[in-house]
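Quick question, first post here. What does this chain look like in 3D?
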Amino acid sequence: MTQAKQALADLARKLDRANKAYHTDDAPEIDDAQYDALKKRNAAIEKRFPDLKRSDSPSDQIGAAPATGFGKITHRVSMLSLANAFDDEDVTEFDASVRKYLGLEPTAPLSYTAEPKIDGLSLSLRYENGILVEAATRGDGTVGENVLANARTIEDIPHQLQSAPEVLEVRGEVYMSHADFDALNARHTAQGGKPFANPRNAAAGSLRQLDAEITRARPLRFFAYAWGDLSAPLADTQMGAIDRLGDLGFSINPLTTLCDGPSEMVSHYARIESQRATLGYDIDGVVYKVDNLELQRRLGFRSNTPRWAIAHKFPAELAWTRLEGIDIQVGRTGALSPVARLHPVTVGGVVVSNATLHNEDYIRGFDSKGTEIRGGKDIRVGDWVQVYRAGDVIPKVADVDLSKRPVEATEFKFPEICPECQSDAIREPGDAVRRCSGGLICPAQAVEKLKHLVSRAAFDIDGLGSKQVEQFYADGWIAEPADIFTLQERYSSGLQQLKNREGWGEKSASALFAAIEDKRKIPIARLLFGLGIRHVGEAASNLLARHYGTWPALAEAMQDARGCDGPAWDDLIAIDGVGAVMAGSLVNAFAQDAERESIERLVEQLDVQEAQRVDTSGSPVAGKTVVFTGTLEKMTRAEAKARAERLGAKVSGSVSAKTDLLVAGPGAGSKAKKAAELGIETLDEDGWLDLIKDA
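> Answer (accepted):
Ran it through. Tokens below.
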């Protein structure tokens, strides 16, 4: 199969082995930087090629599942990961996004804390009435390992607190200093043991010992930097809360400081980076957090990261190597993606043999706007290229050394024919990507669509992963989604039976058939996402499902919107969050006879569930279509939309005859005029807040 697919398979295998060595055997085979790099590379490949995501993808986890041998503790407040910044521009964009969400002007005062990002193991400590009663690792972010006995052996962790809130969950990082690590390794090897790979792995392995006396003998330290469950606030600000933790007896990092905006944040980052080698413990970046805790509350969270914090990672590492080939991979949407095949080279502790080349313009030396990159130097097979890993994720080719270009190297000609099915590969105006026109006749697209359908966020069929889909497709057992749900009918008896295939038996075959049967009842959003329609991701699928409610209503609307005009089309693009590009892709999928018929055959096998409705009893706007326009002064547009949706309203981006209510702030223009013409009820911001105050 393609190299990207093979890379994901290799990464899943390596990460599974690394997890076992790290969490179960306490004998890590790779260091933390390599482990993190593998996970980040896996996530980056999945982002670049979402159709290749495996059902057992490592990126679906935060941290790792609790190890066998430890009790489990469910975090009352989830321990989330942080979004990453890799350069100064990312930090500026983070500040801008915070200000935009909060409705703050660019010049308005806004302070952030900046602290070193300790390269250790996250730990949560729960105190009740001042007594340490729980200690839990991050685990998968929701459930962690109970390591209370071990945590009590760490000198930096108080057993009792004076003048603390009745309930206080302190969070921080367990780490090991360089000096202590060297001494531990010297003792360990002198006793015939295997040396630890690095301080972070040594700290993690030490904290996870089933025998607390072993942990006691290990020189672990703890920095406190956050909190979870609280019975009373520690302070009004992040910095004040950190100082309060210091007053309670916890070690807090002395390099934590307040910064006024991105310029000071980046300057402090540079100061910390310059001290990195002399700190005496490992750090891998700087964490910025909005200082005002009320603003943190308003900003809230994304799916698994807070909006009010970001980790500014240290720079990517570089290496030069030979470009041995350029492979073309075909994805689920038909995109032809070029991948550099490199002579293996170590970049930041990880052996790199592949790198993304983005698209044909990138290979030629131009960006999507036609502007030169790399000084206009193209990339050719045989070139000596510079490879980098931005934040230890998927490698990229940054530069070419023309002085080492072989005489025989020729300009790379991007294929205009699909390498998988020989159909024309077309590049539409405005699209940076060339795509196979073969559709369902293209085996690469067909099998990848099937793998996407059974993926975790779609149908999530136990026992039917990428490997099984590939084999069933290759053997002609399944060719389209509906075939999955007739598999038992066709291959549970007769000459060819699933239980008689190599690697299968009666028990595993029966389990697969049962798992497939279990997924006949499927929520409409999962079905829509599982179809793998271009531009229609998981969030959009949920949005569309809530809007249309039932599958027949959605399918009928898509048919009525053919031609991309008329009332059904207007209703579709009026959905807040749905643009013309996404809408066109969705309508086109239902307009293609072969694809629509394939969808219909699948739906015939299913019991598609209506979208779940929010409990909006008592809501004055439940079921109504609301449009916001103009400037809102007491909340941002994002906050207003989110509140309306929680109350069961449909938020639209345009005014039409279906609009029930317009909320107009200062500066309302054409939308207010149109609403007046249509006789639509209009409220100002105060009227809106008064309307929903009791809901």
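The radius of gyration is 28 Å.
The chain has a mean pLDDT of 87.
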